[in-house]
Amino acid sequence: xxxxxxxxxxxxxxxxxxxxxxxxxxxxxxxxxxxxxxxxxxxxxxxxxxxxxxxxxxxxxxxxxxxxxxxxxxxxxxxxxxxxxxxxxxxxxxxxxxxxxxxxxxxxxxxxxxxxxxxxxxxxxxxxxxxxxxxxxxxxxxxxxxxxxxxxxxxxxxxxxxxxxxxxxxxxxxxxxxxxxxxxxxxxxxxxxxxxxxxxxxxxxxxxxxxxxxxxxxxxxxxxxxxxxxxxxxxxxxxxxxxxxxxxxxxxxxxxxxxxxxxxxxxxxxxxxxxxxxxxxxxxxxxxxxxxxxxxxxxxxxxxxxxxxxxxxxxxxxxxxxxxxxxxxxxxxxxxxxxxxxxxxxxxxxxxxxxxxxxxxxxxxxxxxxxxxxxxxxxxxxxxxxxxxxxxxxxxxxxxxxxxxxxxxxxxxxxxxxxxxxxxxxxxxxxxxxxxxxxxxxx
Length: 443
Ligand code: UD1
Ligand code: UDP
Prior knowledge:
Shape: globular
Bound molecules: uridine-diphosphate-N-acetylglucosamine, uridine-5'-diphosphate
Number of domains: 3
CATH architecture of the largest domain: 3-Layer(aba) Sandwich
Number of helices: 18
Largest sheet: 7 strands, parallel
CATH topology of the largest domain: Rossmann fold
C-alpha cells in the first residue's frame, strides 16, 4: 500500500506532435485530479511548429525534462532515448509510465519502464497495420510486449491484443483521446474564426498532409503523389508540410513544382487550432497521417489515405476513409469519384465515429485511479511456484458469465467465440453456448 498522504506519480513520455496533442487531455485530467506527474519530452520533434506551439495552444506546462535527442537514425535516436529516459525514471521513481501511440518514444519509454518493473500504460494500444516495414508497427508491437495496462480505442484493437495472448483483464476499451482533444479545441478554434487563410468560396478545399517514411523517403512514390496534386487544378489544395517532407521534396527536385502551381498552397506546419478549423471546413482530406484519419471521421470530413494498409481499419469499415496507395491515377480517380458523387460524398461524411465520445481521458484516469487504490500498480516477481499454464478451447453449456466461470474453474477466459466471431470476454458476458479459449494452471 502507498503510505497515507503519498500520492501516485505518473510519468508521461512524449516526443512528437501527435503525442503532445493526444496526451494533452490526459495531462489536463491529471492536473484537475491533483495527481503528481512528471512530463518527459524526448526532443524528437524540436522545431517551434512541431512542438512548442502545441504547448502554448494547449496551455500545457513546459516539460519537466527535455532530453533533446533531436533527429537521427532509428538506432541512434532510440538508444539515446532509452539511456536518457532511464536516468530520469530512476530519479523520479514514478508509479506508472504512460506512453501514447507508436513513435520511437513509445518503444523507448515502454522498454525502460518495463525493465525497471514500473507498470507501463499504453494509450492507443493494440493498433496493428500488420506491415512490419513500418517503423511504427515495430514500435507498437514491442511497446505492447512491455505494457501492463492497455488503453485501446476500439474493440478491433482489443481483439488484436487478444490474438497476441494479452490477458483481457488488462485491456480497457476507452475510445481515443484524439476525440477529447478535437472536440475541446475545435470549440476554442471556432471562437477565432479569423484563423484560417482566405480561400476562394467558389472552389472546393482539399487539405493534404504527408510525412510517412514509406511515402516521402521514396522519390518515385513522392513523385506520383506530386503529379496527382498538380493534376487536381480545379481544387484549392492546402498543404502544411511536415519537415521530413519539405527536406525530401527539395532533395528530389519536387518542391518547386508544387510551389509554382497556383492551386497549391504550400505552408509551414500549422498550429493545432488553425489546423482543426481548416480540416473542419475542408471538403476532403488526403493524408498518410494516423491521427488525421481519426480526426477526419470525428469531424465528418471524407478522407483519402495515401497508404496501402492502415492500423485504423475502423475508419474504412465505417465508410469514412478510403485507402488508395500512392498511384497518381488512383489518387486523382478517388478524389474525382468522391467529389463527383453526391451519394458517396454524403455517406462518407456521415460515417459514424468509431473512436468514442470525447471521454477517453476521463475513463483512462478513472481506471488508473481504481487500480492504484487496489494496490494494482505493482510489478513484483512471484514468491510461490506458479505451476504450469495450460490453454484449452472448450464449449460452455452452463448459463454462466465470464466472472462466474473463471471463479468456478480457476481459469482465465482469454477469448470467447459466438458463431465463429470473436467476442471480448467482459466479466458480464454470458458464455452459454459459446466456445471459449481458457487458460489456467489447474485445467
Ligand atoms: C515521427 C514518428 C512518426 C509520427 C511522426 C509525427 C517515429 C519512428 N516516427 O516521424 O511515427 O507519425 O513523427 O509527425 O518515431 N525534422 C525537423 N524538425 C523537427 C523534427 C524533424 O526538421 O522538429 C526533420 C529532420 O530532418 C528529421 C526528419 O524530419 O530527420 C524526420 O523526423 P523524425 O522525428 O525522425 O520522424 P518523423 O517523420 O517526424
Ligand atoms: N496537425 C497540426 N498541424 C498540421 C498538421 C497536423 O496540428 O499542420 C495535427 C493533427 O491535427 C493531428 C496530428 O497533428 O492531431 C497528427 O500528427 P502527424 O500527422 O504528424 O502524426 P501521426 O498522427 O501520423 O502519427
